From TrEMBL:
SUPFAM superfamilies: Six-hairpin glycosidases (SSF48208). Pfam families: Glyco_hydro_9 (PF00759). It is an enzyme of class 3 (hydrolase). One of its GO terms (molecular function) is cellulase activity. It comes from Castanea mollissima. PANTHER family: ENDO-1,4-BETA-GLUCANASE. Its EC number is 3.2.1.4. This is Endoglucanase. Residues 1-23 form the signal peptide. InterPro entries: 6-hairpin_glycosidase_sf, 6hp_glycosidase-like_sf, Glyco_hydro_9, Glyco_hydro_9_His_AS. One of its GO terms (biological process) is cellulose catabolic process. Keywords: Carbohydrate metabolism, Cellulose degradation, Glycosidase, Hydrolase, Polysaccharide degradation, Signal.
Amino acid sequence: MSQVQRLLVLVAMMMVAVTKVASHDYGDALSKSILFFEGQRSGKLPPNQRMTWRKDSALRDGFDIGVDLVGGYYDAGDNVKFNFPMAFSTTILAWSVLEFGNFMGSDLSNALDAIKWPTDYFLKATSIPGFVYAQVGDPYADHNCWERPEDMDTPRTPYAVSKQFPGSEVSAEIAAALAASSLVFRAIDLEYSARLLSRARTVFEFANQYQGSYNDGIGRWVCPFYCDFSGYQDELLWGAAWLFRASKESNYWNYVVENIHNLENTVVKNINGFSYSGGSYAEFGWDTKHAGINILVSNLVMNSNPNFSPFIPNADKFVCTVLPESPTVSVQYSPGGLLFKPGGSNLQHPTALSFLLLVYARYLSQGNRVIHCGGVVATPARLIQVARGQVDYILGSNPLNMSYMVGYGNKFPQRIHHRGSSLPSINQQPGPIDCKGGTPYFSSNNPNPNLLIGAVVGGPDIKDSYNDSRADFVQSEPITYINAPLVGLLAYFKTH
């Protein structure tokens, strides 16, 4: 065999090896990413509950003040219901189904269940005119304990925003979630869809009429966990955009166009000593909706006015901040290729930003457009390629050859920062485990006894290393708003 032939064989073997590493079972990952939400359920579990080590919990939420606030999701590894990030996760789940539901196959019904669980809860949380419940559970007491949600005996205090103590960000995000979900259920349950849309209108009107941040009214309990750092104007525009898409009523469109200038100003806040600059077209997540607004609106005007300002130019600029080859890239990438932005629980950023890239790639294709980042031309195919690279990294195509989704692949996190997963289930230990009774399990080096299938953790550091430790919650804690955008991504890649 000649030197050239040997080289060709070696190249072929390397290509096979790379293909083997990079090929993932997106369908399996999709099923698991949706199943995760069943592990986060609060309230009375249904007969078709598949994650059976979880049991009923928090069955009297709100009862001490005469309001039924049973249901919804625990946002992460604790037992508090934070409605602001819960609503964002719901909005993104709904958007995932609207864009990619056709690719979900048999998982679509489970995705609908994952959306209806929180929308049923949000109908309860907004049932009293003039009040929107923003949180259930005392976070300080909760974080001082390590106990199963089925056992928790910490105060289940409800916190509400009102005319006197407004909370436009949490109210408008709930309105967005209800409006987006109304579109999802329109072809399935018209009556339920109409109820969601009607409530979305009412809650948005409340958010807009009584403007203010919930930091000022109930900040003592929502901060530092889910302070609103970037202001509430983005949520108002986000809510109005979703209401326009769901209702086609011109007043919501006019609201978006007339108020978009509110996002042009950079918002700088200092909360609990942490300085944050928001108002950027490059940001998207539970707190900052700017890039999402521009991409959502772009679809409404792409064909009629492809340069509609500032939405489409800002959506293009967002893409140029993410692409590694762009001269205006503003995110960092690890040596292994994982996208990084400042702040904890990093995997929320590659999932959310990749979701937007994928959605925008579809809109660009429909509008027959490409993006120019200086001298770099970004095609829809390139956006999809970048998004797929992030998904593949999460599923195991990384320097550690490790999946960051629990239960997917041969190597995944074993000691996630999650109370229910780390403590014996009621099936194994029926007797209660009190506040400090769970501490030995938290401190143990043993793997979690209950697999929270589909949970995606905060992820590795910028050097691609991962500390599989409950104590390192920045890396090991799963969160609903990491999984929510991944559902849409996996649905697309399952078929494409």
